[in-house]
Design goal:
The complex is a heterodimer of chains A (about 280) and B (about 325).
Chain A (H helix, E strand, L loop, with lengths): L1 H28 L6 H19 L7 H24 L5 H21 L14 E3 L5 E3 H23 L1 H11 L1 H6 L4 H24 L9 H15 L4 H37 L8
Antiparallel strand pairs in A: 1-2
Chain B lengths: L1 H30 L5 H26 L8 H17 L4 H23 L4 H20 L10 E2 L8 H24 L1 H11 L1 H6 L4 H27 L1 E2 L1 H4 L2 H14 L6 H16 L6 H15 L3 H10 L13
Antiparallel strand pairs in B: 1-2
The chains are: A mainly alpha (about 280), B mainly alpha (about 325).
Chain lengths: ~280, ~325
Amino acid sequence: MIQQIIYGILYGGVFALAAIGMSMMFGIVGLTNLAHGEFIILAAFLSSVLCTALGCSPFLTLIITVPVMFIVGFILQKVLINYVMGKGANAALLVTFGLSFILKDGMLQIFSADSRRMVVAFQSANIRISDSVVIPVLYLVVCLIGVAVIVILHLFMSKTYVGQSIRATSDDKVAAQLVGVNIKNVTAVAMGIALATAAVSGLTLGMPWPFYATSGSGYLLIAFGVVVLGGMGSMIGALVGGVIFGLAQVLGGSNWGVFISYIILLIFLAVRPQGLFKK
Amino acid sequence: MIKNNARSKTSTIITIVVLAIIVALIYVLAFTGVFSSNLMRILLNICLYASFAVMWNLMAGYAGLTSLGNQAFIGLAGYACAVMCTTYGFGIWVAMLVGGLVCAVLAVILAFALMRMRGMYFAVATWVAAEALKTAFQNWKFVKEGAGMTVKIKPYPTNAEIFALAFGCFIVCMVVVYLLLKSKTGLGLKAMRDDADAASSIGVNIFGSRLLCYVVCGFLTGVAGVIMYISKGSIFPGGGFAIDWTIKIVFIVIIGGIGTAAGPVLGAIIYTLLYEVLAQFAGFTNIVLGIVAIVVIVVLPKGIIGSLENRFKFEILSQRRKSLE
């Protein structure tokens, strides 16, 4: 039981990281990116390919994947999504939906339907607490990466000029423009950051668990669940939501865990759609 | 004014007669074996996809409820069909009725749980509900878990009979949506889609109208789903509740024109023919569909029918009311 709770909490950090980019786009730009799950998997494939090609540790691939995903996000938002966001309520939602299945089938064609996994040296190392309780090092590391990214993002959003201008835009577009913020660029930068977190998320999901070209929608729904549980735009909320989801999946077992987490999510949506930590 | 009215009445009658002749002709052609089996299959798919799309369009285009979870109805209907026919030995009519009713009940439950949500919350919540159903059916012994079920009916309906059912279902969908939107409820729905607060303040019952749309959508999507699985002959949880159904439906409605009466039908024809062409490039179908859909959203946000109607000032099967002045 204690062992399972440890796993649940460690999963939580990873799920929170998967959600944070989506949460940011929800809360700040007002965009539901239904392709976020596919971007996470795309980043995982990139890391995995680089890892094999260069023979380096998976962690080092972030040096390439994070900037690449940032640029992809920036261009995507600037060229396509900003343009459709002005066209009716659901145009942007449906464009990202279209992107999600272009990416999914594109990855199926390029990387095949086989599972992949990134292997590190401490794959099965454990820290022993007692005879029945251990902390798996790999899960601890990916959870800490998740928490670190969220904390850094939080500091970035509150302390730097770019972060503050992103938040100013989310509060009041017109006022932000008046004080000299270029709001078209701001949303593009926000999308870039969201996909940069997706790059890290792809790494942290791709090391402990095998992933497939089709895994994206599952992670999208987890990310969405975490965002809903925690409240959109809330960083602490994402961590708490992640842990709730992690615990539900671990305690529910492999067959019913996903079902239970979906039901929790639906009940939550019906009762408290603004989330635990309303911004 | 009176003259005008009489003229519009005659033209309505002519339209109905012409449509009835076309419908009768299609039935005659189907049963006399003029259609090849390949053509029959394509027509069957067009009818079923058009039914799904017309129902999705009723929700997204008129009631302002963009659902990404209509695969829940299709999968549930498929299982209702398999359980009724294979497990209990009933015929197709019972299967269709039960499939429709089960989906209508699901729609009522989902409506009360999810309809307080707006926009993307509703969209993703319906998707989550469908995924929850998928995992439940994957682990439910009664429906053979992940192994799926076959549909056994004695005697199994011929292709022409299945097509006749699908065509009938499509006609019913069109007529129901037309009458619903022409009614007072429909007027309220359109008012609500354009401005929910204003509509509510002049007495439109928002929840009631949306609930009605959702239940109609659930029932008829369910009936079409049963026919789909009679033609397929087997159902698996992964396929029945797959998001791919919604991908197809969304594509069809976007291409044809969201919020238009004829859009989903044209979209279904385009989709089915495109699918036949793309069948030789297996694996690339969704990529092409996605690119086409995005291009259409960017270039023709109202879809093909919507843009044509705007450009040439006409409206197919208009549910507009004539002004009384």
